[in-house]
Amino acid sequence: MAINVDQDVRLRPFDGSVADYALLVAIGNAVFPDNLETVEQVQHWDARRPAHCIQERWFAEVHGEVVGVAEYFQPQWMYHPRKFFVSIAVLPTWQGQGIGRYCYDVLMGDLQSRHHPLQVRANCREDQERGMQFLARRGFREEMRTWESRLDLHTFDPAPFRAAIDRVVAQGFTICNLRELLTRLPDARQRLYRAAMEMRADVPQPEPFTPPDFASWEQSLFNDPTLYPEGYFLALDGEEIAALSQLWKSAEPDVLMTGLTATRRAYRTRGLAMALKVHALTFAQAAGYREVRTYNATTNRSMLQINDVLGFVKQPAWVEFVKDLDSV
Prior knowledge:
13 strands; single chain; alpha+beta
């Protein structure tokens, strides 16, 4: 249906109801059908956002029908009081009619008048040409890329890689999962927090990492609906956490997502990341999962090399764009 954008489109605030969350997820899943989300996941991500991180979200409606969503927010993992992410998604059947442009103009007008940003960032997958061009026309420049990679567990053969685990065990390390760690050590949560914050700080991103406090991290991790304690693996040096590799549940019941795979600085070059990845993939295969997915910055060559050796296949990259503003 042809529309007059300025007359027929309106934005209404997201109200936080279950019905609005269902609409939000439906739009996201329609735009990215191979990266599905659930209402429970998005509610959890919203609930974990610290109070100092601003978020505003609207629905785009045409004659009362919700056709898109627009939002800006400050990410807690690289917080800056005057830097924001913007996101716009329009249902495929409504794209190409100026709805995204209308959303962007309203969103940016609100953001600039209320918060005077220095920079805004946006993500787009490289195979979504319309979105890539949309951002380029509005002055965004490419900042970094992240590959999604997928491993078909039906064809994965762990046998050639078992020596990687043997080498780590021979050095005196032990491998356990999160549930076992919590049973074994009374201060396991505090130890895991310290180790995870050290490792997370080394993950490539365009701004410095801003770690959460322990209480926020603990609540976020252990209340996460996708947490899979049996698939969250750690390499231990005695009682010290040396490395970890996380598997998380996803909206697709036969697919697992890799979270952080990393080694603490003092333990690098000892083969721990490869050993934990092999251990995790062997576990996932034995548990009957179809596929494991992971995301890595294109600059993270060491992890990309491990994934290539294990047989992960790269998908279209996610491109992160940034736009500098003249706010004062």
